[in-house]
């Protein structure tokens, strides 16, 4: 195996890790959206945080392994390389903003009894359409970057791939934000 192959393997390993922790974040967010008490919301936020705290490191590892691959066989002037870097910065930026929002939600729960019902304002803030839209947009944006890496398009093609992927994710998230909140007895009936 060449050093390049090893670098590519590590790069792809980072992609797998990103989706692994994204799944953890997603489960936490779904639990947050269906939480009824402070304790349930705190547990959900903790689960989300335990996945989200790895994301900046995974982003850095993607950048470093990607930089190694670019330097060894490709060229920094290639549009698909610049587009992937912009996409990665967007991912980290939106991810960081979502994390900040979740930290604010956590602060609101501080000092409340674990069995206290969630205030309607908290539920509205946690289920806000913007938060959901961004939450669903990020994994699709990552899929868009994967598509850019695999197809290696020119500047226009790359931008279209990223924008379409992110728009699909955003549309999916905003649709989910329109659906009514499921009550616990409905969850049981569905299972
Ligand atoms: C979320 C961010 C990223 C994802 C999901 C991602 C995904 C991928 C995937 C799936 C491949 C395999 C493509 C193939 O073998 O055809 C790949 C390869 C590659 N990536 Fe990334 N990547 C990301 C970020 C980056 C960044 C920031 C750079 C540059 C600094 C980069 C540079 C490369 C290079 C040079 C290859 C090798 C292409 C080849 O040998 O065919 N990647 N990436």
Walk me through the structure.
The chain is 82% helix and 0% strand. The N and C termini lie far apart (47 Å). The chain is built from 8 helices and no strands. The chain has one domain (3-190). The protein is an all-alpha fold and 191 residues long. Protoporphyrin IX containing FE binds next to helix 1, helix 3, helix 4 and helix 6. Residues 8, 11-12, 15, 62-63, 66-67, 69-70, 74, 81, 84-85, 88, 91, 142, 145-146, 149-150 line the site of protoporphyrin IX containing FE.
Bound molecules: protoporphyrin IX containing FE
The low-pLDDT segments are none
Count of extended strands: 0
Distance between the termini: 47 Å
What does the overall shape look like? Answer: elongated
What is the domain total for the residues?
1
Order of helices and strands: HHHHHHHH
Report the mean per-residue pLDDT as an integer: 91
Radius of gyration: 19 Å
Q: Which structural class do you get from the secondary structure elements?
A: mainly alpha
Helix percentage range: over 70%
Number of H- or I-type helical stretches: 8
- Percent strand equals under 5%
In terms of topology, how is this protein built?
Elements: H1 3-33, H2 38-52, H3 55-73, H4 79-109, H5 120-126, H6 129-151, H7 155-178, H8 184-190
Helix pairs in contact: 1-2, 1-3, 2-4, 3-4, 4-6, 4-7, 6-7
Bound molecules: protoporphyrin IX containing FE (HEM).
